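To close the section, here is one more complete example, presented without commentary so you can practise reading it yourself. The ligand is flavin-adenine dinucleotide.
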Amino acid sequence: MSEALDLIVIGAGPGGYVAAIKAAQLGLKTALIEEREVGGTCLNRGCIPTKALVHASETLENIKQCNTLGLLVGETGFDFAKMHARKTQVLTQMRTGIEGLLKANKVQLILGRALVLSSSQVQVGEEILQTKRVLIATGSKPARIPIPGAELCVTSNELLEGEGRFYKRLCIIGGGVIGMEFASIYAALGCEVTVIEALERVLPTMDREISQNLAMILKKRGVSIYTGARVSGVLQQDEGLVCQFEDKTGQKQIACDGVLLSVGRRANTEGLLAPGLDLQIERGQIPVNGQYETCCKGIFAIGDVIKGGVQLAHVASAQGINAVHAMAGKDMPIDTHVVPSCVYTNPEIASVGLTADAAKEQGTEANVGKFIMSANGKSVIENAPRGFIKIVADAKTDVVLGAQLMCSRATDMLPILSCAVANKQTVQDLLKAMYPHPTFCEGIGEALEDVHGGAVHILPKRR
Ligand code: FAD
Ligand code: NAD
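Output:
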């Protein structure tokens, strides 16, 4: 039996490793158990590898357009294996960085599969570790649907593995975040992409105008999008696969080389708990209270594995930071109700807080300011695709309730507005600052001005 720890964290994704480092900084003697690679889904099979491919494919698109800038470039093309080699180089560099941080913060990293015996004992292989508390951060894995031929489909894991899978004709089941990011990447590489979405629009949780614009932009790039569609099966044929589905207009089938299943993610709780441990699990997910404690005292959970959470890397990290603060008897520093959400399509999409529709639904009268980025100098200089910035503010108090952006650098600009929503700042608060020229951020200033009809670079509305 080893010496007791203050905390054992299970899973070294962005939830677990950040929580472990923060716990150590707060003075807790902490161990982190990971069965695969440090960095979890996010670093190894999620956020970072996809964005490495997004960056490469967008660079190719930009090079193809560089004639407009007066540049002459010879033959363009790509080497898929080299794109993936670069991706792997990025992951390895970042993984080494995290391992160094864990060591420097004196977090004990244990490689192996954890089995939770109780709030004070965790088993890894033959060893039983003693602890005062356990934090479960075991994340999630791709969900599958029970259709004939499901075993012929790949998930984001396979598309991102090793040298990746290149499909000249890719059919994507599920037009959510993963589906649309891969649609954007593969379309930029000149592939024939088809998206099949069950609901009435792609990115169904985003602002309606964003969904419609994205669908329109991708269709112009040759992507076929079917919404309100029900997939019935995937068949193997001599020349490849066939994906069968039905939409409002009837039965359809698409011939393709690969089918990506991107229909959501399931929590990782299988085989995690020792038989007899009475920890409540609902549909594979772990319910927690406001301090991230499960129904078993001393066992906490955060990130993709918890019930009702938003499955994002920064959300997992924020929950981890809050959870260990609560364990150390301190106030939780982050407002986890304000969740910034980004989609790395081309153009980028970023959203926080309430949309105008959501404000209306909850009975809040709201003013909306909107700026079309084709009037933004930096967007014109960079020949950026069509885009806009929308700000939603409370009509009575002028407090910023939310923002939706669809334009170049939307994801990097969003934090200005997340800070405003989290700190309940008003439109006037945000207009006290100047927005430097020429920047994409000037669009935020103009959208804020437009909340009260005072934007300079928008034609006056007819009275
Ligand atoms: P995970 O990152 O899943 O980590 C859990 C870890 O626990 C894993 O390493 C696993 O091996 C380990 N583990 C599981 N069980 C055990 C056990 N019994 N013992 C030991 N170890 C165990 N989010 C964003 O915010 N931005 C993005 O751009 C983004 N892009 C994404 C793209 C893709 C393709 C995917 C799939 C996801 C993306 N996400 C993105 C979501 C993001 O990756 C997850 O929300 C995030 O990784 C969740 O973090 P986590 O720490 O809860 O779990
Ligand atoms: P998702 O929930 O975003 O999208 C799944 C989509 O599949 C939905 O639109 C749903 O209506 C559709 N769907 C479900 N069943 C279907 C069926 N049988 N046929 C057709 N369509 C069907 O899930 P995802 O795209 O798999 O992503 C999983 C998680 O990973 C998300 O929660 C997301 O937050 C996270 N993620 C985030 C980012 C980012 O932040 N940029 C990128 C990728 C993934």
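Once you have examined the tokens, check your reading against these statements. The longest helix spans residues 80-104. The chain has a mean pLDDT of 96.
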